[in-house]
Amino acid sequence: MRISWRLSHLTSSFDSSLQKPRERKQGLLPPPSLPSKSNSFSSLELCFTSMAASTTNLSPLASHLSKPITNKPPFYLVPQTLLNPLYFPLKPLFRTHKPHCTVSSKNPIADFFPANKPNPEPSFIPSFTDDDKPREECGVVGIFGDPEASRLCYLALHALQHRGQEGAGIVAVNNNVLQSVTGVGLVSDVFNETKLSQLPGEMAIGHVRYSTAGSSMLKNVQPFVAGYRFGSVGVAHNGNLVNYRTLRATLEDNGSIFNTSSDTEVVLHLIAISKARPFFLRIVDACEKLEGAYSMVFVTEDKLVAVRDPYGFRPLVMGRRTNGAVVFASETCALDLIEATYEREVNPGEVLVVDKKDGVQSLCLLPHPEPKQCIFEHIYFALPNSVVFGRSVYESRHVFGEILATEAPVDCDVVIAVPDSGVVAALGYAAKAGVPFQQGLIRSHYVGRTFIEPSQKIRDFGVKLKLSPVRGVLEGKRVVVVDDSIVRGTTSSKIVRLIKEAGAKEVHMRIASPPIIGSCYYGVDTPSAEELISNRMSVEEIREFIGCDSLAFLPFNSLQKMLASDSQKFCYACFSGKYPVMPKEVKVKKVGDFLDDGLNGPMDSIDGGWVTGPKNIDVEKEIDPLYQQSKI
């Protein structure tokens, strides 16, 4: 466990390089420029929208959120107004060159103090995990204007625990000081009453993370906190940057030093070297250099900022508590737990700034491409009680099951689900087919992250440890088994064998998603394309591999038809191989984190957890065997 994480090196290398014009002129030093799609101000237009807060039981800080923004004469950052904004009405903002930040004389990061106990290397065999499932890597929370911000953040992270189980952290602001607690494990493992008492204040951000166990992953647990010349900033990030290595290499060429192997640290460096004023324009400037998926929350001494990438790959919602406190979270289930009312999504390409003076302000990043929201949020990642991308996850999965029953019917006696993610689709299948749904597989919720296996090996031990068949439901029956997806096929084959060993007469697999043929580069931890069974085998070959009597996937065309007019707003790269944002680096993260984080060697050493392509390749052909450039 670690309390208070710092990056003290963010700006020194860039400042020193700028002080050496003679060496640079002679070609001895590289230019300090960074790759940028456009000028940080010419390609965006900003609008401020006041959002009224509830007037009951306002905390001292939250009470300011109900103040309307004073009408000001219209000023523009650019000579002309950019046309056709897609999401919300634009009101221009005057840009001033006068700094709006002051240098704090206080230490921006809380003092270090030792953890209760060291974090040992794992000594047991890893327990069964859903190795046949993609894994969401992050969940984020931000709270402004509540005297118990850190405790509410803690509860919200509990609600988002399904998005990451290996690390958690909270950063709170008290008396203009950012204090941080991060650690390895579940939220309940990292935090207790003592730790939360170290996080007073009315602003907080939080993060849960997926990765594998190991002491070296601690440095990658977010939120990250950094001090720079105008104060300090904390950030929590959900997503993945496809140009991370390019940005990192450029920064390192200019002398930057990295403490982690996380792409989120790049964002802190970009903010620190930005010349934009005030702070939120530094975030805008940094985000213009990012490519890929990012839903982020930032906290400074006096502001909470939420930002979502222009494509809106990963979800981010906004809510409000009855005392006026503003809440941001990856899913609405987090709002429900802390009694915050859902207001709306953070729109793709939008930056929301919350502070004491002006309340909630909306900034619109332009241009706005067509949204490409991750369809797997509705298939697997999000909880059924969440509303994601404006749609009920429960309703989506129920309809997926109904479509399967209509387009892939089979004579059966009972419908069961692979718990927990297949349950709602199985209910939909059973309702449409007129066949009873029963719990044929019972999931154990008490399996820890490690277990000790007996010396006498047990076949399919990991699956049996977590899933127990109910013989009374299965014996002598023709069984339809509904699951949300198949990735490698290894777990599915074990489940089919488990059901048949319990006496099932027939086993028919129905998968509530199309076949996965492409790796995700936008924040989902998936295997390389070569490991994806649907990318290597036909449906019939997969059926033979997993040993079931019949197999059917949700038809891709039916999925798009079900989404109707919203169909074009979703990303289907894992099903079609069409990538909305072309990955610049031919690699995909293997399942799990890696221990060699690059701190003890050159840049290439961070590839320990990545599959990379050979040099001098055609990127468009090598990214995915079935890759086709999407038309946006």
TrEMBL record:
Alphabetical UniProt keywords: Glutamine amidotransferase, Glycosyltransferase, Iron, Iron-sulfur, Metal-binding, Purine biosynthesis, Transferase
UniProt cross-references to InterPro entries, sorted A to Z: GATase_2_dom, Ntn_hydrolases_N, PRTase-like, PRTase_dom, PurF, PurF_N
Database matches in PROSITE patterns: GATASE_TYPE_2 (PS51278)
UniProt-listed GO biological process terms: 'de novo' IMP biosynthetic process; purine nucleobase biosynthetic process
Gene3D superfamilies according to UniProt: 3.40.50.2020, Glutamine Phosphoribosylpyrophosphate, subunit 1, domain 1
UniProt GO MF annotations: amidophosphoribosyltransferase activity; iron-sulfur cluster binding
Cofactor: [4Fe-4S] cluster
Region ranges (Disordered): 16-38
Principal EC category: transferase
Residues annotated as domain Glutamine amidotransferase type-2: 138-357
Keyword Glycosyltransferase: yes
Pathway: Purine metabolism; IMP biosynthesis via de novo pathway; N(1)-(5-phospho-D-ribosyl)glycinamide from 5-phospho-alpha-D-ribose 1-diphosphate: step 1/2
EC number of the protein: 2.4.2.14
Catalyzed reactions: 5-phospho-beta-D-ribosylamine + L-glutamate + diphosphate = 5-phospho-alpha-D-ribose 1-diphosphate + L-glutamine + H2O
Assigned protein family: In the C-terminal section; belongs to the purine/pyrimidine phosphoribosyltransferase family.
Protein name per the record: amidophosphoribosyltransferase
